[in-house]
# Entry
Amino acid sequence: METSKPPEPVGATETEVSDEHNSPIRVLIAKPGLDGHDRGAKVLVRALRDAGFEVVYTGLFQTPDMIASAALQEDVQVIGLSILSGAHMELFPRIMDALHERGLRDVLVVAGGTIPKTDIPRIRALGVAEVFGPGTRLATIVDYIRKNAPRPAALW
Amino acid sequence: MVTADEVLLRLQGTDRRVLPRLATLVENGDADGLEALDALFPFTGGAHIVGVTGPPGAGKSSLVAALLGHIRARDRRVAVIAVDPSSPLTGGAVLGDRIRMMNRYADDGVFVRSMASRGRQGGLAWATAGLVHLLDAVGYPLILIETVGTGQDGTDIASLADTVVVVEAPGLGDGVQAIKSGLLEVGDIVVINKADQPGADDAQRHIRASFDLAHPSHGRTVPILPTVAITESGILELLVAIDDHDAWLTESGQRSVRRERGARAEVLSGLRAVLDRRLESGTGRSPELAALIERVARRDLSPRRAVNALALALDSPAIGGTVGD
# Structure
């Protein structure tokens, strides 16, 4: 049955497709801090699932240590931070520190939510690769992750 | 070839990423990961492996989260493998079991790993057993496996776990549901979660009665414990029952019986997977099969006869080559 196969990325070679089938991209979607607005995060979780990713969702009210610890244990290739509380400039540096403390330097970190454009250069300087503001198309985020997620690391 | 010493050296080093990364390689069927697992296998067998299974929404994750609190309060190290279903359409998955375990995230004595079922039915992922072996080999004394929500079927956990905890909730059926074969049969401990909800006493009575209709297995009565996971009521009793079952497995000699049964199930399921792949790449692409399928579709040949014809081909060494790699 054709529908039982994972969607094939446009232009992918046969090896890439079978690779994606054996090792789906693992993504952590986290809601840092005191922020109860999770509709956007849930919509994104669902969209990433439908794109064939394995999405670990942390739920609300996560501390930087909780997020970094989850990312470490789950060995995700991508972390998405969803924040609508305005506390991103407080929390993002601490999250990046918590990740770096655990050696998680090659994880692709992206952010989304109500983040003023003027803050974006400083957020990028922390090591957050991309900021997706309100109105971003889901397909844009999916494509970005598919293009930029690092491969699962080899051990030796 | 990688040696056990090399793998253990890496795992015992300061880089905390080694274990989770090895888990990913095992999960993805990566050759290096599987070889490392082979090298580690002699070091497995020390852990008490506890399966937590039951229908969706019965409270498995909340129960595991509550158990973690009591386990850590006793300063015991513990690993959790939480399996959630993959989409049959896209292969994607939402792994949401951590949500309820989040209070324990940052504790180094707890290792929680979410897994997607990746197309396997029966409540587990293909690589769950491999991940259990890995966590066992690195020395976690207690490993909890939370299955995909399963109802009357999905008893694969029974051949992987030493102790199976079946989680039920009120309002899921009557006394006849409870005597049907399936999940309850494989329970070493039955939990009626949400015991503060209406119908909990009925559920407990139905299940008790269904067990009373049969002889106790190996002279052991299955405890049926009421819990309320979110208030942690009954959780200590559950942990005691889990430890008691662990002791009983040793005293009764049932542990070695179960481990042999588990080994058999794991080897056979691996062999089936190999045969499946060979069928797909060999016979599955053969013109003979296409021709037979076309005849079945035209109602010219019954499916059973088509299968017989193909099975005959598998037995014959001359044609059996198409089944090979």
